[in-house]
Description:
Layout: H1 21-28, E1 46-51, E2 58-65, E3 72-79, H2 83-97, H3 104-107, H4 112-119, H5 127-147, E4 161-163, E5 168-169, H6 170-178, H7 184-191, H8 201-216
Antiparallel strand pairs: 1-2, 2-3, 4-5
Bound molecules: FE2/S2 (inorganic) cluster (FES).
Amino acid sequence: xxxxxxxxxxxxxxxxxxxxxxxxxxxxxxxxxxxxxxxxxxxxxxxxxxxxxxxxxxxxxxxxxxxxxxxxxxxxxxxxxxxxxxxxxxxxxxxxxxxxxxxxxxxxxxxxxxxxxxxxxxxxxxxxxxxxxxxxxxxxxxxxxxxxxxxxxxxxxxxxxxxxxxxxxxxxxxxxxxxxxxxxxxxxxxxxxxxxxxxxxxxxxxxxxxxxxxxxxxxxx
Length: 221
Ligand code: FES
């Protein structure tokens, strides 16, 4: 539905699809983007590449890092993701490199919620787009830790198997929530999780609540 005054668009569940002016600015004028072909000459210290299981999009993020201070001197990126992925990664790159550059420890503390606050919000269904840059950042910092022989600082995924029969992990449930699943039924439609292992259902519900609160600020079950 289009509201003539605010051009607010709502889906059939009443969720707003309105984009803030900051999101639009970063979409039309992305900061720190590396255009196709430029990456060959870009002498980065670390690189991270992730694909979004939500929609098959890809994000690549490069960092230049000051070895002594561990501050991020530059952050460049490329994506095949949507406008929200472009805007949120553009903002992430600004946050990482402003004020003399963030330290790696502080960079690892950035959450999708922090990027969204700086953007003035994103539609709920677009929150997973901001996770793409966040994951590419973690992957590039891990590469830096590997290169500089700081193996004890590498952040591992630590996926936990929740449904033994189908080998479904907590990360699969996280991705389902990021793709819009809000209830046990929604998650089961996507993953069939718990169907053959009913004993795992309480833990699945707990994870749905946890990830809903983490990404949407509230649980729906
Ligand atoms: S990155 Fe896939 S919809 Fe935004």
